[in-house]
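Lecture notes, continued. The same structure-token format from the folding unit now serves as the input rather than the output. Read the line below as a description of shape only.
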């Protein structure tokens, strides 16, 4: 499923991030791509060791941990520290699928990329093109939301960043390993959680709230991997 998480960061927070990114030391993004992906990748990235990337990445991780919609959609077990990209001057990233496994920096452990995510740090009117285009079992989705919005989508999907023909597109991106590897089961749990929240909001004393909550947690207990 594709989930839009609006205003993960406020406009003022994005403005502060952008001020730092606009003077950052960008490098060729192809150095972090796999063999096939490097053939269709034309962008710039901050090195993972760059202190700015680490500082902003930690800011993103902390905010994710406070964001109920992200937690409900991803059921995160591990999140890879975010990376930062810049697309300008005909930058693009053609159709590709993300690596299935990533090393967790400094831990000797690895992360399975169940879920991909892109945090937009440029507003749509700042650049032409640059849409995130995702193809999954539910069809093709094109996303170009306001700065500060996060798009969460299946790590298994074929996706691309369309050609940027004007302006600059800044973004952060990262991967999450979920406690529930199955995307179909995560979708069921996400829908059930949403229904519970809606019922609890409209009828907080209704006995079914406890029953459905029990079902949710028992399914999560049965389907999760720790």
């Amino acid at each position: 499923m594709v989930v839009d998480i609006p205003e993960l960061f406020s406009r003022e927070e994005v403005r502060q991030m952008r001020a730092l990114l606009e003077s950052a030391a960008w490098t060729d993004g192809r150095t972090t791509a796999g063999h096939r992906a490097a053939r269709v990748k034309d962008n710039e990235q901050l090195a993972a060791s760059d202190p700015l990337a680490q500082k902003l990445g930690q800011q993103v991780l902390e905010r994710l941990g406070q964001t109920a919609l992200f937690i409900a959609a991803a059921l995160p077990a591990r999140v890879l520290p975010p990376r930062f990209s810049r697309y300008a001057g005909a930058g693009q990233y053609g159709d590709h699928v993300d690596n299935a496994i990533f090393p967790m920096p400094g831990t000797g452990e690895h992360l399975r990329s169940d879920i991909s995510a892109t945090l937009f740090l440029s507003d749509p009117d700042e650049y032409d093109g640059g849409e995130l285009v995702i193809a999954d079992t539910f069809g093709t989705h094109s996303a170009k939301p306001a700065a500060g919005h996060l798009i969460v989508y299946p790590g298994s999907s074929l996706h691309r960043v369309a050609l940027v023909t004007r302006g600059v597109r800044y973004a952060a991106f990262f991967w999450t390993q979920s406690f529930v590897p199955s995307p179909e089961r995560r979708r069921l749990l996400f829908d059930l959680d949403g229904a519970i929240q809606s019922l609890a909001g409209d009828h907080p004393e209704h006995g079914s709230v406890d029953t459905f909550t029990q079902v949710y947690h028992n399914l999560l207990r049965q389907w999760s991997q720790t």
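Point for the exam: The radius of gyration is 18 Å.
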